[in-house]
Amino acid sequence: MENSIRSVMEYICSSLAFEKITFSKCRDSHILRASVTPFARRGEAYVQIETFTDDGKALHRNLAASEAAEVLCEMAERGYKQTNIHTAQGDCEIRFSKKEQCSILNRIKTTAAVTPRTLTAHNKKKQYLLDPTADDGARAFLYHLGITDEGGRILDKKRPKYRQINRFLELVDDIYDTLPSGGTIVIYDLCCGKSYLTFAVYHYFTAIKGRTVKMHGVDLKPDVIAYCNETASALGMTALSFSCGDINAYEPPAGETPDLVLSLHACDIATDIVLKNAVRFGAKAVLSTPCCHHEVFHAMNAEPLAFINRHSMLSQKLADAATDALRCLWLELHDYDVQTMELIDPEETPKNMMIRALKRKKPHTPAEKEAMQAEYRAACALIGCVPYLGREQEI
What we know:
Layout: H1 5-15, E1 18-26, E2 31-41, E3 44-53, E4 58-64, H2 65-79, E5 80-87, E6 90-96, E7 102-106, H3 138-144, H4 159-174, E8 184-190, H5 196-208, E9 212-219, H6 222-234, E10 240-244, E11 260-266, H7 269-281, E12 285-290, H8 294-299, H9 306-309, H10 312-333, E13 336-342, E14 353-359, H11 366-383, H12 388-392
Parallel strand pairs: 8-9, 8-11, 9-10, 11-12
Antiparallel strand pairs: 1-2, 1-5, 2-3, 3-4, 5-6, 6-7, 12-14, 13-14
Helix pairs in contact: 1-2, 4-5, 10-11
């Protein structure tokens, strides 16, 4: 093996000799570090690249091992100033000096016989918050909603939905400590639909956390609402209710403020309507996963972006990103700390992004709000349209 970055990466990817690769001292100041580990997927060798950013996010990218060498070379040569490779045959360190001189200290012994590795899947023993075989209530509502059979076995066609619900509960669990520690937790699920998520969250707070809740779902479809109320009654979920109507017209009971507002895959501007009303209600926390983004896609009209918008697929991706970025900025304007995160593996659904907003204890100063308002208006000017939230409340 030649003592070059490419030779090292090609060797470790082809032989799967490495245990872990750590990239540090990134040339992009917003990235802290990255790590790479091998794993198996459907019997094939893959590597996972986990990138840690300065805003607390961990971004994941999975590549077939046969395709990874080129990407890892690029990362080591141009992305990071230090790369440490750990293998059973020794370690290798790649460094760049301040003058961009590369040095490679390679102690990987390629003359030694490489023992074939048995890779395991990342989710081999994944523990979910919802146990379909437990007698804590999860088994009953999962069966009632058609996710499991009577014995608690997850139906094959419902496995993605089961994983999605559990992932959402993990994200609820992440913010649990930010919610009131005593008393009744008030939760609204807006655009609740068939309410897989509503029943799961109710179970999480009552059965797993032992909390008293008051939970209400709202949707426009009368048949769906009737089904949800019947299901809640059949399951003995006495503190869970549903009503049919327009979210914009819904008024909480006098003196009631939701601790948490949820929304899973509300379509197009329905997500905007959810966010607007969550703010109107004074929600302490909001978890929303957008669905399609038709409004901005059809309304974008900006000459500087014509080189993107002439390609429908690229234009759609731009509209998706612009829509959700403007939603985040709008929430920040209303004194929320906002993050975006991955809900589920994008291989299962492209609708895998969540907006998480937590009410700030200290509101933004007038100067900070003025700066964000200017940023919002500039972004709208760039894409050539003002989305629903910007029109509903003058920015």
